[in-house]
């Protein structure tokens, strides 16, 4: 053993001093040991890190390949064509289900509608039967009353009271009254149709009432069922209807309209002058012989207030269908009145201005004019306005 080694061993065995010297020596020599270890371990650690990096690269490539494979598998599973095909199948199935459900519902509705149509037809048949029976009974009663009136009129002058004979002589034939009421219902139109037609004259009525403030009511001569009176009443305008057809007056009264049974010309002659702001007569003047029409229009002029308005509506013979056919459906028509004739008459009597307003063209007119399947002049002659109105104002305002 060398002297140096023996000295180190001896020093190490000295209490307290030996451990201290040993620790001091280890601390002093630690950097040298660390450097020796570093020189040995660092190359080894670098090799290990290279191995790890290489492995990570291989894992990255494997993950990329795996992702590509998964994407390929997914695309094959959810191919758009497959999806479209499946969706089409599902839609076809749904459409078939809906069509089946709708078809069943429609069948049920068809059955219900058939049942309703059958019941409606039964009710209509029963109503037609009862209406026909009522009409026949009414006509039979009217016929019997006509015969009775004729027998009364044939009685000798002294066989009954004079006032009874006078009243019977002036009573319209009930059978003709019944016929004319039925004729109006069948060929003139429903109440709703007539109300819509005459409503176009409401502005003129409102203006007439405004001009003649405080005057009497607007009077409709030959008022029939009272459609024009109904329009005026709904507009808050005072009005009165005059007619001698009791069957039609009954319809007007049923609607709460103010009417009285009288002859139009006789009623006019009883009125004071300048007392009525507007006098209307829808489809009345064509029933009067021309001398009576002249007297009628003259009395209208007398009774109107200054600035008052006369309104006469009548069939328009400028329409060939009216002049050649429909005018003659009514056996009480005297003759057609061309617009030029009525205009001249009203101007001679002193009305000014006098305006002609064409009304109610045939529904086919516009179609023929639009399609040009007929020459325009022919379409207007055949299917032009079927009525016209004379609006004549009394001077004075």
From TrEMBL:
Q: Could you tell me the Gene Ontology terms of the biological process aspect for this record?
A: methylation
Q: Where is the Methyltransferase domain?
A: 218-308
- What GO molecular functions are on record for this protein? methyltransferase activity
Keyword field? Methyltransferase, Transferase
List the InterPro entries hit by this protein, alphabetically.
Methyltransf_25, SAM-dependent_MTases_sf
Name assigned to this protein? Methyltransferase family protein
């Amino acid at each position: 053993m060398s002297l140096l080694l023996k000295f180190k061993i001896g020093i190490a065995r000295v209490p307290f001093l030996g451990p201290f010297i040993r620790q001091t020596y280890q601390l002093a020599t630690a950097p040298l040991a660390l450097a020796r270890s570093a020189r040995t371990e660092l190359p080894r650690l670098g090799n290990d890190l290279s191995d790890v990096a290489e492995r990570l690269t291989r894992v990255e490539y494997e993950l990329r390949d795996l992702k590509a494979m998964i994407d390929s598998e997914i695309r094959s599973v959810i191919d758009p064509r497959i999806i479209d095909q499946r969706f089409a199948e599902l839609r076809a199935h749904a459409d078939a289900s809906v069509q089946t459900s709708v078809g069943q519902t429609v069948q049920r509705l068809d059955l219900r509608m058939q049942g309703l149509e059958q019941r409606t037809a039964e009710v209509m048949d029963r109503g037609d039967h009862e209406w026909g029976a009522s009409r026949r009974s009414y006509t039979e009663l009217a016929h019997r009353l006509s015969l009775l009136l004729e027998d009364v009129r044939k009685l000798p002058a002294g066989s009954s009271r004079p006032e009874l004979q006078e009243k019977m002589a002036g009573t319209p034939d009930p059978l003709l009254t019944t016929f004319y009421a039925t004729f109006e219902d069948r060929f003139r139109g429903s109440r709703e149709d007539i109300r819509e037609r005459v409503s176009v004259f409401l502005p003129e009525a409102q203006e007439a009432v405004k001009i003649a403030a405080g005057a009497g009511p607007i009077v409709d001569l030959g008022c029939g069922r009272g459609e024009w009176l109904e329009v005026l009443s709904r507009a808050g305008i005072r009005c009165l209807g005059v007619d001698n057809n009791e069957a039609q007056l009954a319809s007007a009264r049923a609607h709460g309209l103010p009417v009285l049974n009288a002859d139009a010309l006789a009623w006019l002659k009883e009125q004071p002058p300048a007392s009525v702001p507007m006098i209307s007569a829808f489809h009345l003047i064509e029933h009067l012989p021309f001398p009576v029409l002249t007297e009628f229009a003259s009395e209208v002029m007398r009774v109107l207030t200054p600035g008052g308005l006369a309104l006469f509506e009548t069939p328009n013979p400028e329409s060939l269908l009216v002049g050649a056919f429909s005018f003659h459906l009514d056996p009480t028509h005297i003759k057609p009145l061309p617009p030029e004739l009525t205009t001249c008459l009203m101007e001679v009597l002193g009305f000014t201005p006098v305006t002609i307003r064409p009304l109610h063209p045939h529904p086919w007119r516009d179609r023929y004019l639009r399609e040009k399947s007929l020459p325009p002049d022919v379409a207007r002659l055949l299917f032009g306005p079927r009525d016209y109105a004379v609006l004549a104002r009394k001077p004075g305002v």
